[in-house]
Amino acid sequence: MSEPTKLEAALDELLAGKSTEEIVGPEGLLKQLTKALIERAMNAELSHHLGYEKNAPEGRGSGNNRNGKSRKRVQGEFGSVEIEVPRDRNGTFEPQIIGKHERRFTGFDEKILSMYARGMSTRDIQSHLEEMYRVEVSPSLISQVTEEVMEEVRGWQNRPLDPIYPIVYLDALFVKMRHEGRVENRAVYVAVGISQEGTKEVLGLWTSATEGAKLWLQILTELRQRGVQDILIACVDGLKGFPDAIATAFPKATVQLCIVHLVRNSLGYVSWKERKTVARDLRTIYNAATVEEAEQRLAEFEATWDAKYPPIGRLWRRHWAGVIPLFGFPQEIRRAIYTTNIIESLHMTLRKVIKTRASFPSEEAALKLLYLALKNISKKWQAAREWRAALNHFTVLYGDRMEAAWQRPLR
User: Fold this and answer.
1) Rounded CA gap, 372 and 158, in Å?
2) Does one domain contain both 124 and 211?
3) How does residue 224 score in pLDDT terms, banded at 50, 70 and 90?
4) For the range 321-326, what are the long-range contacts, defined as Cβ-Cβ under 8 Å and sequence gap of 24 or more?
């Protein structure tokens, strides 16, 4: 067994005979060591700033020297501790370990943001910090920490994008938020792109009172301004006017109706005990190999179910033009379009995060939480399934457009 290092030996001596309370309690050793460490680091920083050690003769006549200390209280995982901050006479010293105007130790803000991103309320965060770290944190401090995220959100929302995305999913979810003095359901528009590498990327978040094709046109125009030159396939719900909005911004894009939306809307007409059967019969339609086979399966579905659920057949007939582009693609691209079900999965996760909030006090508050939640969610994202095979087909079908988009200068 190796001999303990000098540091390990010193720690063993320091901790000998100490109880847990004496080590990590409110006034325990951990807090005292943290205070000593911060103050020593600041004094070392000041010596480096001045160019000489404390009481060294080089300081005489240097034009700047130490000028006492000020006190401030710092929050951290160790609790709350009062530290002495050294000052210089000229007021030019800026501590690095804890900045001049900072009152929170490194890592503390990240804990607040992590809890906030998981949907915890301000009161929950307060209670958790007090219980786990014995730190009393005011609601205004938590708001201040999360408010600093908005600058990051604005930068993210305006970042440049790739010139082309083979697939883009466009959808909206509804969130309760206060607007002009009253709480109302407002649409949060979400655009998710699949890059040429098969990675998923949320392109942006936007809010509005309702979901409408006009606002989608504004969003698509903004995507163009941020660098998107072309979209190969746009997967959308059945919103009226949506295809026209896409065609205006990206005239070459193929508009594919989201099969998941269509099936879900169809099952809304069906009793619970028959949903599995109806869903199975609908699957024969969108799993058909060709348009002709799909039309035959739709006719068979209508023959079976029209007497009981006539709205379903009419729904599929009404949106058939948006369904049939699917059958022009090989299976690899079809799977990338609808079985990964990216936007629906994303919305389900976001709803879990926001369900703890009765409503948000503002649009900004909603965007902050959704953005932080997206950062957590995207860490777990993997490339689309069988993307290499899908990309090969995209290259055969749209190779000239993919090459042109990357070569075209940004407008």
Assistant:
1) 16
2) no
3) very high
4) 322/236, 322/238, 322/243, 322/255, 322/256, 322/257, 323/257, 323/259, 323/262, 323/286, 323/294, 324/291, 324/294, 325/233, 325/254, 325/255, 325/256, 326/256, 326/259, 326/286
- Domain extent for 180: 162-407
Q: Which of 93, 78, 94 is nearest to 24 (CA)?
A: 78
Q: What is the pLDDT of residues 122-142, one digit of tens each?
A: 777 777 666 655 556 667 766
Distance CA 209, CA 206 (A): 11
Do 174 and 124 share a domain, yes or no? no
Residue 50, token pair as written in the block: 């001045």
pLDDT in tens, 14-31: 667 767 666 656 666 666
Shared-domain flag, residues 235 and 194: yes
2-6, 147-151, 292-296: least confident range:
2-6
- Tens of pLDDT along 388-398? 888 999 999 99
- Residue recorded with tokens 């847990």: 20
